[in-house]
Amino acid sequence: MPAVTIVVVEDEASLRRDLVEYLRGCGFDSIGAKNGRELDEAIATREVSLVILDVNLPGEDGFKIATRLREMPSIGIIMVTARGSTVDRVVGLEIGADAYLVKPVEMRELEAQCKALLRRLESNVAAQRTGASSTTAAPHLNGTPPGASAGEEASWVLDATDWSLTSPTGVRISLTSMEMKLTSLLASQARQPATRDQISQALYNRRWNPDDRSIDTVVGRLRHKVEAAIGASAPLKSVHGVGYVFSAHVRVL
Questions:
Q1: CA proximity to 156, closest of 174, 169, 139, 138
Q2: Is 151 a residue whose pLDDT tops 50?
Q3: Directed axis angle between helix 177-188 and helix 86-94, to 10°?
Q4: What's the CA gap between 183 and 159, in Å, rounded?
Q5: How far is the C-alpha of 10 from the C-alpha of 57, rounded, in Å?
Q6: Residue 246: how many CA atoms within 13 Å on its side-chain side?
Q7: pLDDT of residue 144
Q8: How far is the C-alpha of 91 from the C-alpha of 199, rounded, in Å?
Q9: CB of 78 within 8 A of CB of 51?
Q10: What residues contact 170, with CB distance under 8 A and at least 6 apart?
């Protein structure tokens, strides 16, 4: 695996040193940062591929930092924190963390998560390059959108290998882990509504609680992301009293 830069953001000096040294032993270019300011300095001077992020940090906490980092989709985020409650896990994943590990972390698991995430990020970059070349060409010379033959309905395409959703017109949208789980479930329903209980089980492995609005948050963010990318209404609809449905055909790779 080519050398990539990983920044370990951890305010506990001994743990930060241990994580940095272990990752260097795995072949990564790893450096430490004790807060968000030092992380920003690293990003400004290096090509950072992955951030390992604690939550309880002095000043700006890890959740706020992760929210900022999600504006840079080329950087992966793995949270490593002592805050292991279900609520904290959900918050971390909903704001865009790619993985959430609870301290004390098993180093081999962290290494595996880093390698898996970096593979996905590399796939995303390759797919974006391919998509960019195809979308700059003359669109649909034969009048048939991608994913459909003449006379057939165009398909959205969900790629589980690089966590992306591509519109019938070729616009590729990168998904977070929660958005991927949600879209996979809705795609498997063949345009039939998924209940809130089904969605809660798929996202959080628990039954739905009527007081829990986390599902609506994930759906809202996915809908906003899709609409911003395609410049039109998303085929992600609310079904009153039931749940949600993806009202267009989705082809799963």
A1: 169
A2: no
A3: 90
A4: 10
A5: 7
A6: 25
A7: 42
A8: 16
A9: yes
A10: 131, 134, 135, 139, 145, 146
Q: How far is CA 9 from CA 20, 29, 52, 70, 138, in A?
A: 10, 14, 6, 16, 45
Which pLDDT band holds residue 153 (cuts at 50, 70, 90)? low
User: Mean pLDDT for the chain?
Assistant: 83
d(CA 54, CA 66): 10
Tallying the residues shown for the chain, one arrives at 253
d(C-alpha 22, C-alpha 233), whole Å: 46
The yes-or-no verdict on residue 134 having pLDDT over 50 is no
Query: Which two three-digit tokens encode residue 141?
Result: 């010379």
pLDDT(118) > 70:
yes
> Which pLDDT score, from 0 to 100, does residue 140 have?
40
The closest alpha carbon to 110, from 164, 43, 57, 51, belongs to 51
User: Token pair of 86, please?
Assistant: 């279900």
Measured between alpha carbons, how far is 216 from 203 in angstroms, rounded to an integer?
12
**Does the predicted model carry a pTM greater than 0.70?**
no
Adjacent-strand bridge partners of 243:
195, 239
Residue range 152-172: mean pLDDT, rounded: 84
Query: Which CA distances in Å does 17 have to 21, 23, 63, 102, 236?
Result: 6, 10, 22, 18, 45
Contact 23, 114 (CB under 8 A): yes
């805050």: which residue's tokens?
83
Q: Within 10 A of 141 (CB to CB), how many other CB atoms are there?
A: 7
- At 234 the three-state DSSP class reads coil
| CA distances to 118, 129, 169 from 126, in Å | 12, 5, 19
